[in-house]
Design goal:
3 domains, 25 helices, globular, 554 residues, 7-stranded mixed sheet, 45% helix, Rossmann fold, Hemocyanin, N-terminal domain
Length: 554
């Protein structure tokens, strides 16, 4: 009997599901692909059309229906409905069409899906933990129907992409992230758990929406909030002791604090801080292959000083230090501009994470003025403010750089600081561009530019695979540095010639395995791995990957 079927039966202490119950179990359902023998054994005669289809034929049917939908949201709902019916088929469709479907199951479409989550809600997926569950979170988590959970993605919904506080409707983010864990790095879906910490919302529209799915109260704060998160972490590590816990889309004030509190205590990381920093550093390494410059000669100006921006700064500083600069010198090459203007010495309202980057400089609230005075070699947008990399900003960057680095990383698409067409046009084709959301190729003066997508999906699935495949006890910052370098190594010369600083998504599983091997290597070097070391780490990662295929049940 198949391994995943055994897990299902062991958890529920039941006999093999039969009939309608089997057809309603998405982890086991094969739909019209159940064989004649399986139809006899499991009581499926008459419950399915008589013809037995291959999985390939089912994929053809799904794609035909998928392309009938005219809107990304319609396609999202179609795929999520398939996910709820037939998990293996869902992942086969997605993995074979990842470049087309990643923008649907994750950014940018998942942002709209979260905004309408309560109105689209059809079937629960994951665990919703609310205030009423305080004191009983262990029991809530034990209600989950799989026992061997390896990856938990958890959010409190306060900072969903660039959209803000979406409360419990932000559950679409953990669901989407874990779909990418399985599609991009082969983490078994049965080992993935999305979690929403429903601590309330300050979104007036949601509080007044009769279809809102979460608790209608203002957000918890202070000690009450901390105690709630503490109980969750304690319960999660008790119920799923081998699980990696990924923090996702927490507000800045909580994100840094929670990461520092738990990073040395449990197996955890924050994707918005560490994952974003790693993927951006990798893109910069690729950009420097194009410009043929050294990292230690660069100066970066970040638009946005939240989790993403600060995470990028931390990774870049660590990389510069590894290449010979002192930490002080490296920090002096990273500047930040937030909603209050340029972060400089003497400015008030600075968080502790900002103070090391508050340099001596005249204050300004004008981003163009900051660009002209600092003269950065690269501008990195993580502000969720569309159009901030204006024509004047881009022309200025091209004026004092032969190959300016322009990374407009804000999600979803309509929040990007500039489009690739704007970047290439206003720099006369000089810009080395990357975005957070997908954009198509751009023709400019007879040359085709293929903008890179600085998507965290290049990093977090591979890091997660590397950690869980060797049963690591901690996730460290140098693992993300190793991941960045491994990703950059996978960007080939043909990619570089087209201006692309990331490899094509069609290679994501191979790339994730390379990243996982680099992360695992570090885990063994640091004494953090708890399993015997395989002879070939890369092959071990490939072998560990879930493959979306039907299993024979008889």
């Amino acid at each position: 009997m198949a391994a995943r079927l055994r897990r299902q039966i062991r958890k529920s202490s039941m006999s093999v599901p039969r009939g309608v119950e089997l057809l309603n179990t998405p982890t086991l359902n094969k739909g019209t692909a159940f064989t004649e023998k399986e139809r006899d054994v499991f009581g499926l005669r008459g419950l399915l059309p008589p013809h037995v289809h291959t999985m390939e034929e089912q994929v053809e049917r799904v794609l035909g229906n998928y392309h009938r939908y005219d809107t990304p949201l319609g396609r999202y709902v179609h795929l999520m409905s398939l996910h709820d019916r037939n998990e293996a088929l869902f992942y086969r469709v997605v993995t074979e069409n990842l470049e087309e479907m990643m923008p649907i199951i994750y950014t940018p479409t998942v942002g709209q899906a979260c905004q309408e989550f309560g109105h689209l809600f059809r079937k629960p997926r994951g665990c919703f933990i609310a205030k009423k569950h305080k004191g009983n979170m262990v029991d809530v988590l034990r209600n989950w129907h799989f026992v061997d959970v390896k990856v938990i993605v958890v959010t409190d919904g306060e900072r969903i992409l660039g959209l803000g506080d979406l409360g419990a409707d932000g559950m679409g983010i953990p669901i989407g992230k874990l779909a990418l864990y399985s599609a991009c790095a082969g983490i078994d879906p049965a080992q993935c758990l999305p979690v929403m910490l429903d601590v309330g919302t300050n979104n007036e529209g949601l509080l007044n929406d009769p279809l809102y799915i979460g608790t209608k109260q203002r957000r918890m704060t202070g000690d009450e909030y901390d105690e709630f998160v503490e109980e969750f972490i304690t319960a999660a590590t008790e119920v799923f002791p081998r699980a990696l816990i990924q923090f996702e889309d927490f507000a800045n004030a909580n994100a840094f604090r929670l990461l520092e509190r738990y990073r040395d205590r449990v197996l955890t990381f924050n994707d918005d801080i560490q994952g974003t920093g790693s993927v951006v550093l990798s893109g910069i390494i690729g950009a420097l292959r194009i410009s043929k410059q050294k990292l230690t000669d660069q100066k970066f100006l970040f638009l946005g000083a939240g989790e993403a921006g600060m995470g990028c700064g931390l990774q870049i500083v660590a990389a510069m230090v590894s290449e010979g600069l002192s930490e002080e010198e490296a920090r002096s090459r990273c500047w930040f501009f937030d909603v209050h203007g340029l972060i400089v010495k003497g400015r008030d309202n600075l968080g502790e994470e900002h103070k090391p980057y508050a340099h001596d400089h005249k204050p300004t609230k004008d981003f163009l003025e900051a660009v002209k005075s600092i003269k950065p070699t690269g501008i990195i947008g993580a502000s969720a403010q569309a159009g901030m990399f204006s024509k004047d900003v881009l022309e200025a960057m091209a004026g004092f750089n032969d190959r300016p680095i322009v990374f407009a990383l804000s999600n979803p698409t309509h929040k990007a600081e500039c489009t690739p067409e704007e970047a290439y046009t206003h720099t006369d084709g000089k810009a080395i561009y990357a975005s957070g959301s997908p954009f198509g190729p751009v023709e400019y003066k007879g040359q085709t530019f293929v903008p890179g997508q600085g998507n965290n999906a290049y990093i977090f699935p591979g890091v997660g695979l590397g950690v869980v495949a060797v049963n690591a006890t901690r996730v460290t910052d140098d693992m993300f540095y190793a991941a960045a370098k491994a990703l950059a190594d996978e960007c080939g010369e043909e990619d570089i010639k087209m201006g692309r600083v990331y490899p094509p998504l069609s290679r994501i599983r191979e790339v994730s395995a390379k990243i996982a091997a680099a992360v695992a290597e570090l885990a063994y070097e640091k004494g953090l791995a708890q399993l015997p070391r395989p002879k070939d780490l890369y092959q071990h990662m490939l072998d560990a990957m879930y493959k979306p295929e039907y299993e024979d049940y008889v």
